[in-house]
Structure prediction request, 303 residues.
Amino acid sequence: MKLTCPKCHKERDVYQSRNGNNAICRPCFLSKSATVVAVCSNCGESRKIRPTKQCQYPAGLCRKCYDALRIARRRAVTCPRCGKVRWKRPCELPHYQTGRCNNCKFDYDPQIPDRYEAGYVVGAVLGDGYLSAENVQNRVAKSYRVRLDVKSEPFARRFALALETCSDHKPWIGECDRSYKANPAIGMRAGTTHRYRVVFSDREWYEKLLPIKREKKYYLLADFGLEFTSGFVQGFLDAEGYVFNDPLGKKSYIDFANKDHALLENVEAALNRMGLHRTRIYGPYQRGVYHLRLKDSTLQKTA
Prediction:
């Protein structure tokens, strides 16, 4: 039944109350009965809220006092870049966060620092490392990670130490068992291996390593100094190298194996800049693997 509402003066389906006197429309009835007056248990001020919103403000607190209580439970963090203080919950401070504010979160130098540890990180990532950008728990924001899975524990710890030296937080390092499928073409059986995994969640280093690792812009490695170059060669040696020392002292060499011929050419150029010129690239051999051999060198691989 459509009647004229005495409150809004619109012709709508009216809501008939129990006593039959106040016949008003449904929107006017809901706006009249949907709010309740409550007194804050902290400041004593009265507030009007809907009954369905009472669960959002426990202990009878108003919105102002409830927000103050939430801030008090948080942790004060000083941004290392600009020095401003921001409030964060303990659950919002995982080990891989840099602690920067929103203005300085992605404000960083895109260039890789010219130092030994940075060169070691680049060499190890080009060998056995990989980059990943994954969604975290079905969220829009992604987690940018630099990862390394190797069998050698000293190599994994040296890589983690180099990352920690170049950045302002520590990477995660742990142990895992990795399973692999059988490959009859090369006579490999199915099984599992014990691995040491290093996970470094940092968007800054992800974007610094992305042009070299994914886009293969190896010519950028020639712009660094001798200190970076020596660290790069050592990191690539630990990842893809093999050192052969003859017990009789007649024959000793270092061998780098990789499928990317352009990468081995850049490693050869780095060795030449270090004064090591007795190099040669062989291949391709089985499965398209090339070998870079360096004769009579004093370089040693991390155990």
